[in-house]
Amino acid sequence: MRLDDAISMNPDYIVVGAGPAGCVVASRLSEDPNVKVLLIEAGRSSDNFRVKIPIGPAMMITKPGWDWCWETPPDPTMNGRHITWSAGKVVGGGSSVHGQVNMRCLPSDYDEWATFVGDNGDWSYEDMLPYLIKCEHYPGSDSPVRGRGGPLNVADMTTVHPLAEAFVGAGEDRGYARTDLNGEDPIGFGLTQATQKDGRRFNVYDGYIRPHAGRPNLGVLIKSRVVRVVMENGAAVGVEVAAGDTTKIIHAAREVIVSAGTIASANLLMKSGVGPGEVLQSAGVPVAVEVDGVGRNLQEHSGLSLSRFIKDAWSLNAAQARPDLGAKYLYQLLVKKTGPFSSPVVQAMGYVRTHPELPNPDLQLHFLPFAYRMKPESRSALAAEMPKKAAVAMQATLCKPNVRGQVRITNADAESAPMIDHHLLGDERDLQTLVAGCKLITDIFESPRFAPYVVSGCNPLTNPTDDAGWVDYVRNNTNIAYHQVGTCRMGRRDDPAAVVDPTLKVIGADRLRVIDASVMPTVPSANTYIPTVAVGEKGAEMIARGV
Q1: Does Cell division show up as a keyword for this record (predicted)?
Q2: Phi, psi at residue 82, to the nearest 5°?
Q3: Among 158, 156, 152, CA closest to 333
Q4: How far is residue 301's CA from residue 109's CA, in Å, rounded to a whole number?
C-alpha cells in the first residue's frame, strides 16, 4: 500500500509495528469486515532468502538494513564493553531475525504478571493459556494444552545434533525430567521446537497477515516510519508517518495501537509527548500526557556461553572452514529440507535451579550446535568470533534478572535513537547466578555423556581456577538474549509505576494502547516471542469486545 492510499483508507485502527504483537493485533481486528485496520512497519519486506533460512540471523543481526541496532554506552559492570540491543527492522520484527525457538515460558511467569494488575486483571496462566493454545499449530503432541490449527506453525527439528540428545540426558542424570518444554509441566530438559515449516522460518507475518492479505479492510504500509502519535487534548487521533522524503498524517477513527517493541514503543511515546515530564521537558518535547513509568522497568535476559572443540559430530563452525560442507548443508536444506542449516540456533534447552530450595528455576540452559568467542569489541554473540573447527557450546541465561534499566529520549528529533541505560551485571545476585551456571555447564561437559566427544577447551581455553576468575569470565563474556521487556508495563490504574492498565490502555490518555512485550511487568523465564504473541491475541480480543 502507498502512503496516499493509507490516508484515503480512513482506518479505524492504526497499528504501529508489524512485529510479533502488531501482526497479531492487525490480523485479529480485521476479522471484522466492518473494521478498517492499517498496519505500519518502518522496516523492509520479509520476503527474502535471509529471513527464510534458519541460519539467517547471522546475516541480519547487527546489520543496519535489518536491525535497529540500538546501542548502549560502555557498561562498567562488563568491563566497559558495549552491547547492541537488536530488534528486527523488517516485517515480522523479531520473528524474522530471531533463532526460531518456540517457548511459552513457565506458568509462574504469567501468575507473576497477575500480581501487578490485581485479582480481576485476567493475566494469570489460567487466563493466558487459551491464547497460547489459540496461536499454535503443533501436530507433535496430543496434550490438551497444545494447539492445533492456529496461525503459527511449530515443528520438531528435522536434524537433531547427537550432543543435543546428550545434553537432555545429562539433565536426566541430574534429576530433571525429560519434558515437552511447552507442555503441561515444562520444567526439565527437552529438545527445541522451532517456529518453522518444512525446514524454513515461519514468522508471525506468514501466520497472521500473509493468508489474509486480500482482505479489503486490512492495509499494510512498509518502509514507513511513524515519527509520532498525534495527540489532541490527551487523545491519540492519528500518526505522523515519514516515507522517503514525504511526511504526512494519517488519522485513526477509533484507536492507535503502539506495537513497535520494548525500545521503540517507549521511544515513540516519549517523542509524542507521552512519558515522564522531566525527561520530556529536558529533551524539548511538549508534554501531552504525563506518564512517569514510560521507559522505566527495562529488563533483559543476560547470559553467556562456554564451548568445547569436539570430534565425531557435526558443527556449524566446521562449515566455515570447509566449503564442501557448507555446500552439502545448503543442498540438504534447499532440496531435502533437512540438515544442519535447517537447525534453529538452539537445539535443546533446560530449566535448572542453582539452589534446590528455590521455588522456580533461576537459569535456562541452552545447547548450541556451534561456538563463538566474545571479544572486547564484540557487540553481539552473532557478531562474535566463530572458530573454524568443529565446536559446540552451552549457554546459561538468567530466568529472572534482578537488575532494571531505563530508556529515555535526549532530544526531540524523531529520527534520533533513545538512550538505553542498563547495567546488565549491576546486581550481585545475577552475577553469582551466572557463575554458578558456568560451573554447572563445566560439569556437564565433563560428564560421561559429553566427555567422549570433547577434544579441548574452546571458550574458555582453560577453566578459571577460582571464583574470582569465573567472575572475570562472566564480565567479559556476558551478552543479551534479545528479550527486552517492561518499558510500558501494565498495572492497576492507581499504580504510579504503571504505563498501561490491564486492558493495555495508556493511563491518562484516550484512544491509545500499547500491545507488545513492553507491557510485561517482568520478563518471562525464557524466550519472549510466544508470550508476546499471546499478549497480542489477548489485546486484540479486548479491543474487539470493546473493553
Answers
A1: no
A2: -100, 150
A3: 158
A4: 14
Write the CB contacts of 282 (distance below 8 Å, at least 6 apart in sequence): 410
Closest listed residue to residue 87, CA positions, set 104, 64, 55, 59: 64
The DSSP result for 478-494, as a single string, is: -EE-S--B-TT-B--TT
User: Alpha carbon 300 to chain centroid distance?
Assistant: 9
**Which cell numbers in the block locate residue 269?**
511515546
Cα distances (Å, whole numbers) of residue 146 to 103, 136, 186, 501, 533: 12, 7, 12, 29, 15
Judge residue 46's burial from the number of C-beta atoms within 10 Å of its C-beta, 0-12 exposed, 13-18 middle, 19 or more buried: buried
Q: Is 449 helix (H, G, I), strand (E, B) or coil?
A: coil
* The C-alpha cell that represents 213 in the structure block: 492479505
Q: Three-class SS of residue 126? A: helix
Query: Which amino acids are annotated as binding site, given as ranges?
Result: 90, 226
Q: Which amino acid is at 121?
A: G
C-alpha cell recorded at residue 180? 515437552
483 is catalytic: yes
**Binding annotation for FAD:** 90, 226
3-state secondary structure of 373: strand
Place of cell 564493553: 81
pLDDT digits (tens, 9 = 90+) for 89-145: 999 999 999 999 999 999 999 999 999 998 777 999 999 999 999 999 999 999 999
Distances (CA, A) of 405 to 184, 271, 392, 402: 33, 19, 32, 10
Single-letter code of the amino acid located at 426: G
Angle between helices 125-134 and 529-544 (to 10 degrees): 100
In tens, the pLDDT along 48-76 reads 999 999 989 989 999 999 999 999 999 99
Give the Cβ contact number of residue 71 at 10 Å.
Answer: 13
Q: What is the pTM of this model?
A: 0.97
Closest CA to 516 of 493, 487, 543, 477: 487
Cβ proximity of 195 and 152 under 8 Å = yes
Q: Which of 98, 366, 422, 483 is flagged as catalytic? A: 483
